Amino acid sequence: MADVEMPQLGETVTEGTITQWFKKVGDTISEDEPLFEVSTDKVDSEVPSPLTGTITEILVEEGDTVDVGTVLARIGDAADAPAPAPTAAPEPKPEPEPTPAAAPVAPEQPPAAPAPAAAPAPASADGGGGPGGGAKKLLSPVVRKLVNENGLDIDAIAGTGPGGRITRDDVLDAIDKGTAKTGAAPSAPATAASAPAAPAAPGKVTAPAPAPRAGERDTAIPHSRIRQSTAAHMRRSVDTSAHVYASIEVDYESVDVVRRANKDQFKADEGFSLTYLPFISRAVVDAIREFPQVNASFGENELIVHNYVNLGIAVDLDFNGLLVPVVADADGMRLRAIGRSISDLAARARSKKLSPDELSGGTFTITNPGPFGTTMTLPIINQPQVAILSTDGVKRRPVVVPTADGGEAIAIHSTGNITLTWDHRAFDGAYAAAFLKKIKDLLETLDWEQELG
Question: What is the rounded distance in angstroms from the CA atom of residue 310 to the CA atom of residue 364?
Fold first, then answer.
């Protein structure tokens, strides 16, 4: 018999929420087969079984949040599994009792005056909530933190977890809909006799429009955890940074010559295709050395310049969300090593095998919609960074090139745009444009054959 414990999913992670068990008591499982899914404040991960055997006990229910090291389940031999409980025979239905005669109706009393309602309070540290049953509700640490940080009335949130327990998804849904704010009263439904709303007086802030609801011909797709987290993060970024954009065209012919000559051998050696992304990533890392302020965070009365490059790479999860795993210390890697790290992180992001630490600490981000043939993408900054680069589609186009005799000629080259979004609070347009120009020059002139070797 072996215990299965809550794993240490990252240096800063002390607890996790069991979101799904893939097996039940009595099921057999093989070593490294997914056993359960755990959610932290940074990532959802599938955790494999540490050994082959039979699930004999499951000690933590779905929706429960427990500390690292907590025993979650036990795995043993098939003989250790508990026998299923015998099914009890149904009890005979009781004979219906005769209907009693109706009691006389008491004279109607005048209604008592209603007592003034107390304003609801946010959930307390001990898991309590607002008035009524909120103080008796059991909240996990993750849920309690979300409730307190967002000033929510716990009584206004319907729990969908076991026994009606409020889960993290329930709280995120309430935040998204704005229906559980402390002190917020529900609006009365409109009637046909309602008068039209008067225009807002100058200087007054009008209430936000109500959220749309699905009709008979619509399909309602519930927001996933990752969609809700992305929405909150992007909205916060737009509210935080002064977003500005600049784009430049790159002639990728020098890169393409090397790619075409080496792509088959590279695929055989590394197991993945040689795309433009490792070349661009290496050029970005080199350009940051000359323009370090793009690799920074905007602090209070200071720009915090990072003297290392942790390169975030945005990864699409088959159109079901976006994660940004981090290539740590990318400034110390050559092109081939950067390509290996990007391929590995992307594969593990899609299979839910990333640790929270691999999604933390990024200092500059690249997003890559280019494989879809985009022309110019204006991405949102990945907070708390101050810049993000978009790499758009590369296409064969006619370009003007210099000739050996000093003249010009038309040639067919691979070209595409790269676009920088930057926080104007951190630096100005000339600095951003010079940084883009440096990336362009490196991509067009670096000896990529030697770099790839």
Answer: 7
Q: What span, in angstroms and rounded, lies between the C-alpha atoms of 47 and 18?
A: 10
Q: Of 257, 255, 281, which is closest to residue 443 (Cα–Cα)?
A: 255
CA dihedral 330, 335, 340, 342 (to 10 degrees): 60
> Do the strands 311-313 and 364-367 form a parallel or antiparallel pair, or are they unpaired?
parallel
Compute CA 450 distance to the chain's CA centroid, rounded to the nearest angstrom.
38
**Cβ 353 vs Cβ 45: under 8 Å:** yes
Q: Tell whether the model's pLDDT for residue 286 goes beyond 60.
A: yes
Evaluate the omega torsion of the peptide bond into residue 384 and state whether it is cis, within 30 degrees of 0.
yes
Task: Look at residue 142 and give its three-state secondary structure.
Answer: helix
Strand pairing category for 311-313 and 296-299: unpaired
The tokens for 222 are 């519930």
- Rounded to whole angstroms, the Cα distance separating 356 from 132 reads 37
The per-residue pLDDT for range 372-427, each reduced to its tens digit, is: 999 999 999 999 999 999 999 999 999 999 999 999 999 999 999 999 999 999 99
Place of tokens 């309590």: 128
Q: How far apart are CA 51 and CA 73, in angstroms?
A: 12
- In 306-428, alpha helices (H): 335-350
> Could you read off the pLDDT of 119-131 as tens digits, one per residue?
444 444 344 444 3
Residues designated catalytic: 424, 428
Residue 123 tokens read as 């959930």
CA dist., res. 92 & res. 383, Å (int): 64
- Share the mean pLDDT of the chain: 82
**Residue 273: exposed, middle, or buried by beta-carbon count in 10 A (0-12, 13-18, 19+)?**
exposed
Contact 451, 280 (CB under 8 A): no
Whether 202 shows a pLDDT value over 90: the answer reads: no
At 81, the amino acid letter reads: A
pLDDT above 60: residue 83: no
| Closest-CA residue to 144 (of 162, 161, 159, 166) | 166
Strands across the sheet containing 34-39:
44-48, 34-39, 15-21, 65-67
| 284 Cβ contact list (under 8 Å, min separation 6) | 311, 364, 366, 389, 439
Rounded Cα distance between 251 and 440, Å, is 8
Tens of pLDDT, residues 86-107: 555 555 555 555 544 444 444 4
